[in-house]
């Protein structure tokens, strides 16, 4: 046996997506990091060992402009390019290479931490070291650091360090949560095993093992959905253990889940009720995907009211959007729906105070074990949300090391700096603007070769009958006068429309009524019908136009999406069987759905001209949609004409590093692992070929030229600082979008500003 000691600035225990993003975030800020994982692959429940889909704030398209950015966003976009079919082994590689790209990370796989050395009294403890055993290598490794992150999911490190925690459900009165039980208990969400099948192309028999459950004698065939072609996360409801201890009873839970999986497959293959003669098992999981165990107590406990009210915490460092998604304690044997869902009207915010321990002074946490009530945990538990919390916790840990402070002191004294660093890194924060004093771009005058001034989608494809209300969302900046719709009418009729705001800038549902209008239309096809509305909001914001149902009328779809605009259908049928998921139908995000038509807008035109896509939007401080697109968009590009955006300081400045954030359409759901397929490898709105130029000696000089870009955030460190009074980004081509679109430009006088 080999005994070793590893000393780094930060130790992250747990290599799921929370731990990966925490380690990468800290490493990119110059700290040395030990990332310790007890499995041979990274990714946790998303890895090829467990194969749970990577859900997040998009909630499978329920929330709009909600896909995560930052490190999680990088992995989404890279996986889309490398792994469009969602192969779990390729996803393993994407996650592994994200870690290996950081020279400051030392990775320890197959290393199970089971000892923690900590000291201090109950209310003020500190971790000195953690020790793990590297399986297969006979190495006992002690990790010493100034900061520790518990990203284990089960919360083992914090537990051994004496961190305060909860298991189970709080009583309703503790946080005044409507969905909490009247009395506290030890109930948790259960664990799940998944399985994959395939068509072998020839008959395959199945002889069930002796322990297979006869599911015909259970409620499963009556209360759950079983189909021969389904596999993977379609069987998320194979869940059990909520009434047990999901850690100490893990082996028992696994055996019961195995018995049910093989029983389901026996039922599919041998009951005669399914067309499954050629189907065979391809893979069966052996490691239960745990949903819930310990939740640490932080300086703030996130609760149901924070989620539903979308409380805008002053220390917000991440966002989520998955519904509060709670399951019956009996899991797959329950006669209730497999899950019940409560949605906020848009994305909610997560405070930094929920990411560090209330009583262990040098421990942060991210993932399933953050400081949240059981009800709030019902949404924060999904993996893309765990990942963005990991990036926040890792960034916070790095700043704590740099400044020699505890996480609590960081919150009290350096919160704004933490948030600004995260914005600079393109992290997932909504509603905070860039106020970085080092960013030279903020003081520049911005112009462009052209600007999209007309909101218009006027190339029709097929028409759809107006059997229910539909919605069209678009930016109003500064005034809405008239809206025109391209309409077919079977007879002379009257069409009614309303304009509503969205309530909050981060929401995309109809709010308060602002204007309404009616228009008479004659029988005929492809008629442009105008509605005079007249709304000047106090600040630029999105409008939600509701076109009232009229079965005599058809609206025309288009195949030309326009950034900043969306369409919705009211009262759409649920996308899943109600025996599996119970959604409250009156919730606006449930009432108004996109029906996978995000890239197929209706034909419409808006007047007068808009300022929503002006060049100065690239330095307005916002790096993602927030009540407006917040980006520069050019007119449609033409052959032989390049589009550019220019920064002019009216004086010489010294530039050493340039940050460009391109539009990768954060409305697009890229969760292709075991679930969703998107037809393109690269998001079309991303700029493909571009160059950076500086004005010097009376001419433009090329500082950098990029080819075949497929990433959202690019940081270009110049070989040597350049003095210039003007700089520009020239867009030569995109990955399919007809317009050049840039979300943000930053310029810094120092290199490696992120470090």
- CATH C-level class of the largest domain is Alpha Beta
CATH topology of the largest domain: FAD/NAD(P)-binding domain
End-to-end distance: 38 Å
Strand count, sense and barrel status of the largest sheet are:
7 strands, antiparallel
CATH architecture of the largest domain: 3-Layer(bba) Sandwich
Radius of gyration over all CA atoms, rounded: 27 Å
Structural class: alpha+beta
Kindly list the characteristics that best describe this protein:
single chain, 755 residues, FAD/NAD(P)-binding domain, Jelly Rolls
Brief sketch in words of this structure:
This protein is α+β, with helices and mostly antiparallel strands. The protein has four domains: 2-165 and 298-326 and 343-424, FAD/NAD(P)-binding domain (3-Layer(bba) Sandwich); 191-284, no CATH class; 440-451 and 613-748, Galactose-binding domain-like (Jelly Rolls); 456-607, Sandwich (Jelly Rolls). It contains twelve helices and 39 strands.
Topology at a glance:
Blueprint: E1 2-7, E2 10-13, H1 17-28, E3 33-36, H2 70-82, H3 88-100, E4 105-108, E5 111-121, E6 124-134, E7 139-144, E8 147-150, H4 156-161, E9 165-166, H5 172-175, E10 191-192, E11 195-199, H6 220-223, E12 239-240, H7 250-270, E13 279-284, E14 295-296, H8 304-309, E15 316-320, E16 324-326, E17 339-342, E18 348-351, E19 363-365, H9 374-380, H10 383-403, H11 407-424, E20 445-448, E21 456-457, E22 460-466, E23 470-476, E24 480-489, E25 493-500, E26 513-521, E27 524-535, E28 541-547, E29 550-558, E30 566-570, E31 581-583, H12 588-591, E32 592-593, E33 604-607, E34 632-633, E35 643-662, E36 687-696, E37 699-706, E38 713-734, E39 741-748
Parallel strand pairs: 1-7, 2-3, 2-8, 3-4, 8-19, 17-31
Antiparallel strand pairs: 5-6, 6-7, 9-14, 10-12, 11-13, 15-18, 16-17, 20-35, 21-33, 22-29, 23-28, 23-30, 24-27, 24-29, 24-33, 25-26, 25-28, 30-32, 34-39, 35-38, 35-39, 36-37, 36-38
Helix pairs in contact: 1-10, 2-3, 10-11
């Amino acid at each position: 046996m080999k005994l070793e000691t590893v000393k780094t600035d930060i130790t992250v225990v747990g290599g799921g997506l929370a731990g990966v993003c925490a380690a990468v975030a800290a490493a990119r800020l110059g700290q040395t990091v030990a990332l310790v994982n007890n499995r041979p692959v990274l990714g946790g429940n998303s890895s090829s060992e467990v194969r749970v889909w990577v859900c997040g704030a998009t909630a499978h398209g329920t929330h709009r402009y909600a896909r995560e950015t930052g490190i999680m966003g990088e992995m989404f976009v890279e996986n889309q390019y490398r792994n469009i079919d969602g192969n779990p082994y390729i996803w393993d590689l994407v996650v592994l290479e994200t870690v290996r790209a950081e020279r400051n990370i030392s990775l320890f796989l197959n290393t199970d931490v089971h000892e923690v050395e900590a000291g201090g009294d109950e209310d003020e403890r500190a971790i000195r070291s953690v020790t793990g055993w590297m399986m297969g290598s006979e190495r006992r490794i002690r990790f010493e650091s100034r900061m520790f992150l518990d990203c284990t999911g089960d919360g083992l490190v914090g537990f051994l360090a004496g961190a305060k925690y909860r298991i189970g459900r709080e009583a309703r009165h503790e946080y005044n949560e409507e969905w909490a039980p009247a009395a506290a208990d030890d109930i948790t969400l259960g664990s799940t095993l998944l399985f994959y099948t395939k068509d072998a192309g020839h008959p395959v028999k199945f002889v069930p093992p002796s322990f297979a459950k006869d599911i015909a004698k259970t409620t499963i065939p009556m209360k759950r959905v079983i189909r021969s072609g389904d596999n993977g996360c379609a069987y998320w409801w194979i869940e059990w253990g909520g009434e047990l201890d999901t850690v100490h009873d893990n082996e028992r839970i696994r055996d019961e889940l195995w018995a049910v999986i093989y029983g389901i497959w026996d039922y599919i293959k041998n009951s005669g009720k399914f067309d499954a003669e050629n189907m065979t098992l391809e893979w069966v999981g052996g490691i239960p995907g745990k949903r819930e165990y310990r939740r640490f107590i932080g300086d703030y406990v996130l609760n149901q009211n924070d989620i539903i009210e979308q409380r805008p915490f002053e220390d917000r460092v991440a966002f989520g959007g998955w519904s509060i998604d709670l399951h019956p304690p009996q899991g797959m044997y329950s006669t209730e729906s497999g899950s019940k869902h409560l949605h906020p009207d848009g994305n909610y915010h997560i405070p930094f105070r929920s990411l560090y321990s209330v009583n262990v002074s040098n421990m942060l946490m991210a993932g399933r074990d953050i400081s949240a009530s059981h009800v709030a945990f019902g949404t924060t538990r999904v993996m893309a949300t765990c990942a963005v919390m990991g990036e926040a916790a890792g960034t916070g840990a790095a700043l704590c090391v740099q400044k020699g402070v505890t996480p609590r002191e960081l919150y009290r004294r350096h919160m704004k700096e933490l948030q600004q660093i995260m914005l600079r890194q393109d992290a997932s924060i909504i509603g905070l603007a860039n106020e970085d004093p080092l960013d030279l771009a903020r003081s520049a005058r911005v112009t462009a070769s052209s600007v999209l001034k007309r909101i218009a989608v006027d190339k029709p494809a097929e028409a759809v009958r107006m059997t229910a209300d539909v919605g069209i969302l678009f930016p109003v900046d500064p005034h809405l006068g008239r809206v025109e719709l391209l309409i077919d009418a079977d007879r002379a009729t009257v069409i009614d429309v309303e304009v509503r705001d969205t309530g909050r800038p981060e929401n995309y549902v109809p709010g308060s009524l602002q204007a309404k209008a009616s228009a008479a239309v004659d029988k005929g096809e492809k008629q442009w019908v105008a509605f005079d509305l007249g709304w000047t909001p106090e600040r630029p914001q999105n409008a939600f136009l509701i076109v009232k149902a009229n079965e005599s009328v058809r609206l025309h779809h288009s195949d030309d999406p326009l950034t900043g605009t969306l369409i919705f259908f009211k009262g759409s049928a649920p996308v899943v069987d109600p025996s599996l998921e119970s959604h409250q139908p009156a919730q606006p995000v449930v009432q108004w759905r996109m029906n996978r038509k995000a890239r197929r807008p209706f034909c419409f035109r808006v007047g007068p001209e808009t300022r929503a896509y002006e060049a100065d939007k690239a330095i307005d401080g916002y790096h993602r949609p927030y009540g407006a697109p917040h980006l520069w968009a050019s007119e449609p590009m033409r052959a032989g004409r390049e589009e550019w955006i220019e920064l002019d300081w009216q004086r010489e400045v010294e530039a050493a590093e340039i940050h460009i954030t391109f539009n990768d359409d954060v409305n697009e759901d890229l969760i292709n692992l075991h679930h969703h397929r998107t037809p393109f490898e690269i998001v079309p709105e991303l700029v493909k070929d571009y160059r950076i130029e500086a004005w010097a000696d009376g001419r433009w000089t090329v500082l950098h030229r990029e080819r075949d870009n497929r990433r959202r955030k690019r940081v270009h460190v110049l070989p040597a600082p350049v003095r210039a009074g003007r700089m520009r980004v020239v867009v030569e081509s995109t990955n399919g979008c007809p317009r050049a679109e840039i979300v943000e430009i930053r310029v810094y006088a120092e290199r490696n500003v992120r470090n």
